[in-house]
Write a structure and sequence with these properties.
By secondary structure, this protein is of the alpha/beta class. The two termini are 32 Å apart. It has helices at residues 3-27, 58-63, 65-74, 87-96, 98-103, 116-126, 140-148, 162-169, 173-180, 190-199, 220-231, 247-255, 272-281, 311-316, 336-340, 355-363, 376-385, 387-403, 407-420, and strands spanning 50-54, 79-84, 106-110, 130-134, 153-158, 184-187, 204-206, 237-243, 261-266, 286-288, 302-304, 320-323, 345-347, 367-369. Helix 3 (65-74) packs across helix 19, helix 6 (116-126) packs across helix 7 and helix 12 (247-255) crosses helix 17. It contains 19 helices and 14 strands.
């Protein structure tokens, strides 16, 4: 794709963006806030050298937690700017860094649409000394404008599936030039590194997956135990974690003849009402997490996890989990959180966004992966009936998560090198 075609597409995106924000804002009013930032107009200003970290949504924001902690500690003379692409990502950042944001040590903003003008306004306004893009966010005008200003930009914890690599390859020189303008690319795995190098990245190193270094909130186990008291200690609790469109129905079909309690946690909060409508349509006896104040009656079949910020507590209250995003061809969701909490996990056949960690988790016997979705009911039944297997998988999951820690230290060493330059 020639760069001028990409530029025209970005201007079209900018032109249609208000309609998208208005539409999304019907279900999630936060989309109608801070609209000016989407075009590179900001009110808050930096008062110290600024390190900019971009984490588009909830998953990336949570994954940056150990890195942000390390940056705040190692560079006390700097401010940090966290940019996001979604309101839920921004809200997650606020929950994690409320005190630092209140004190001004951490700033938050939306990253603007990638037009030349918006990219210039963003960089002129904040003038960061370093830009860190989490996972694989390639914004070609922003990278180009940063290069012109001699602002080093790196991609950290980069992952690139074969499918995504094929998509970027179709952009030809646009992708190649963008990757070559980066000061550093830090890949999660050797396979990710090889795919990025094949696309044109030249300065690539491998540091592992930052998500392994995320520490659950200190009260996660306590909150999980309190939640489990409400769910019932004598019931087997299966958590459907971060489910996405079309997956809830598949899971409900798989457990319809089971006596387990299903803790159903949709990935996106704007779908809570949709999933509740599905439960009503199936005439299931369910309770909303936000209304759960007394121990459940035994006839309750489903608890709908419609709260925010409780994922670790949900895992701590569960006997095992089914991973959302993997039952449909959506690439899967983060299984590391489950492993960290020692929760045995059933993975669907579509974990291509987490291919390496999936292979390693299965090899470590921390998780099982289905070859086909038709196995779901059998896998759920096996773990429901076999407490010893759940216990063995739980121990394996904890050991697996602990073994892969240490990425933050390697990233900080790479960041130090960039700042020295």
């Amino acid at each position: 794709m020639p760069k001028f075609v990409y530029t025209l597409l970005m201007y079209l995106v900018a032109l249609l963006l208000p309609l998208k924000l208005l539409w999304r804002g019907l279900k999630q009013p936060e989309y109608r806030q801070h609209v000016g930032e989407r075009y590179g107009f900001y009110s808050q200003t930096a008062k110290a050298p600024l390190i900019w970290v971009h984490c588009v949504s909830v998953g990336e924001t949570r994954a940056t937690q150990p890195l942000i902690q390390a940056l705040l500690k190692e560079y006390p003379q700097h401010q940090l700017l966290m940019t996001h692409g979604t309101p839920t990502g921004r809200e997650t950042g606020l929950q994690l860094w409320q005190q630092e944001i209140a004190s001004g040590r951490v700033l938050q903003a939306y990253l603007p649409v990638d037009t030349p003008g918006a990219a210039k306004r963003f960089l002129n306004h904040f003038n960061p000394v370093l830009g860190l893009l989490m996972e694989t966010e390639l914004w070609f005008h922003l990278i180009d404008q940063a290069k012109r200003r001699q602002i080093p930009v790196a991609i950290l914890s980069a992952r690139l599936s074969e499918k995504s690599a094929r998509g970027y390859a179709k952009l030809g020189d646009l992708t190649r030039n963008g990757l070559q303008q980066l000061a550093l690319v830090v890949a999660q795995t050797e396979a990710d590194a090889q795919r990025l190098q094949a696309l044109g990245a030249s300065n690539v190193i491998v540091c592992g997956n930052l998500k392994f270094d995320v520490t659950p909130p200190a009260d996660s186990a306590e909150k999980g135990a309190a939640l489990r008291q409400l769910l019932g200690k004598d019931r087997t609790v299966c958590m459907a974690a971060s489910t996405r469109e079309g997956e809830e129905a598949l899971i409900l079909d798989a457990v319809q003849n089971s006596d387990i309690l299903l803790l159903l946690v949709p990935r996106h909060p704007q779908r809570f009402a949709e999933v509740e409508s599905l439960l009503k349509a199936r005439a299931l006896n369910y309770v909303l997490r936000t209304e759960l104040a007394q121990p459940l009656n035994e006839d309750v079949q489903v608890v709908l996890g419609n709260s925010m910020g409780e994922m670790y507590a949900y895992y701590a209250a569960s006997d095992f989990a089914v991973m959302g995003g993997s039952l449909q061809p959506l690439g899967g969701q983060n299984l590391i959180e489950a492993a960290t909490m020692g929760v045995p996990t059933i993975l669907g056949p579509n974990m291509f966004n987490f291919a390496q960690v999936t292979r390693e988790a299965v090899a470590a016997k921390a998780a099982v992966q289905m070859a086909d979705i038709s196995e779901l009911a059998t896998q759920i039944d096996t773990l429901t009936r076999n407490a010893e297997k759940r216990k063995a998988m739980s121990e394996a999951a904890k050991e697996f998560a602990l073994k892969h820690r240490g990425t933050t230290q390697r990233l900080m060493a790479a960041i130090e090198g960039l700042l020295r330059k």
